[in-house]
Amino acid sequence: MRIALDAMGSDNCPQPEVCGAVEAARKFGDEITLIGPEDKLREILSDTSSESLPVHIIHTTETITMHDKGRQLTLKAKHKDSKTTMAVGMDMLKSGNADVFVTAGNTGGALATAYFRLGMIPGVKRPAITVLFPVKNGRCAVLDIGANPNCKPDHLLQFAIMGSIYANKVLDIQNPRVGLISNGEEAGKGNDLVKDTYPILEASGLNFVGNLEGKEIFGGKADVAVTDGFTGNVVLKTSEAVAKMFTDILRKELMSSMRTKIGAKLAMPAFNNLKKILDPSEVGAAPLLGINGLVFIGHGRSDTQSIVSAIRSARQAVNANLINALNSAIKKRIEFIYDQEEQ
Amino acid sequence: MRIALDAMGSDNCPQPEVCGAVEAARKFGDEITLIGPEDKLREILSDTSSESLPVHIIHTTETITMHDKGRQLTLKAKHKDSKTTMAVGMDMLKSGNADVFVTAGNTGGALATAYFRLGMIPGVKRPAITVLFPVKNGRCAVLDIGANPNCKPDHLLQFAIMGSIYANKVLDIQNPRVGLISNGEEAGKGNDLVKDTYPILEASGLNFVGNLEGKEIFGGKADVAVTDGFTGNVVLKTSEAVAKMFTDILRKELMSSMRTKIGAKLAMPAFNNLKKILDPSEVGAAPLLGINGLVFIGHGRSDTQSIVSAIRSARQAVNANLINALNSAIKKRIEFIYDQEEQ
To answer: How deeply is A339 buried, as exposed, middle or buried, from its count of CB atoms within 10 A (0-12, 13-18, 19+)?
Structure first.
């Protein structure tokens, strides 16, 4: 298996990427190509005693940063001569020189680059950005969390199909439970989009478990939560912000007296476990669904372990032939619609 | 001042309501009328040595419960002979026998009852449910959190105007900062509704601070956060669910060993402070904005202190003559629109 890795994606790049690549190559035996400035990568690589491992470098100095937006981002994503780490990696996918591309960089940049260089799986109307949320007793794949601020029921149906296939093939969940994010758990609750989508999901043949409020999402009622990119993004940002506020206040309060400081020290294993359960690096990277090629996106805050875990998810998608599975699920669904129309 | 209080609203009713009424009457000297089953209320009241206080009872046995939905709820809310605690309380407002109505009951029920019995402030197109979020260094009033799953820019503008007046008059905030919940803080980010609303808020003369993501809301960037009822409800439910997951995991981890148990015991003051900062009873009740009468809704989980705090907010709204202020702000805005159209 050949994995292409954006060496310049994470907030602390390229250290986590280089060390993660080395550890993953050692662990899984895969061929890993780091994409980024050769000198810098070589320097970190030389400290890792990785001479015998199948870790390669493809040199480029261009990147897509968090500051790239609008026209400039489109140009970097689209132009055939673009040499950003993402463009180079996706071109490797396109030409068959890599099986999967992994990045911890700008999600919008990855989506745009993927859209222009790899295109869509035939029949898919909109690509979706997926993230894994830590929930009670596991994880929940939420999509779309930002690619499509305005959606139609058709789009949400395709997200549900793709999310279900992904949960099954990559997260190893039998018959994944699919829910619809809404402002009430009962059927009939929702805005127009949700109300129109509900009966379509109910009739879809998927394991549809109905509407999801926050307590159902985080209570682990579904393996896949489907929503438009605006709402999904608001859910993501809200949960991150609440978790941060909670942690900030707790930390401040624990440091406010000698007694609580000692208590905090003793209780440290509990805090560490809490952190581990809610840690993005433990939750893993997730794919851009609908793109005609395997692109996995990890958290910007990724450390070495997050990169290894992102590579683990990515290779599982390759092994499960995720793109083929998505392709035939979407095709089958289109045939199903044609059948219905003919009747 | 005459305050009408739904005695059967909170999860543990009527204990918190009766004790809260007594404490508030003692504290503020206001006349408080408890609405609910007289025997039950009288029994609790008799333990409070409140004979000399202006606490009255109006007897009714009907209530709106969490199970009331759809047609049944509408009937209870609308029918002229309805004797639910909410109908009785709002009829008191309507007939001038009370200045404000306070309930910790079913929000949808309160909204429906208010809508049918009190009507709207002239010119207001949609009523909005407001909640106060605990945020860094204070509170943020978020509206709408559920009355209107589908909104238009006009509605959001009115929410912004009403939220701003409320924050100024009741929360005592000079020139309240108003933001728009979106999937990105930059102007230009958003779904169609947000993109269409942004320039209207920018030109509104309000202290508009732009788009808000989770980190801006909980970071305290705005005093008022405006959104459609679907998104607002999702934000509310997501934050409650994340906070609950956080607390549940932390509690479980702290109880997992003798060492962490001792640590937790020592750190208890910090946990108590955290709880206090995030406690709904400390954050307070909020009004139904746009309704032609003062209706304040507190949390279902209200205890005695929450009821006292809800009454405190309610009486401040009466003192500030909130309905008049809303009335003239909406009227002024309508005149402003007419002026523009004439030009």
So the answer is: exposed
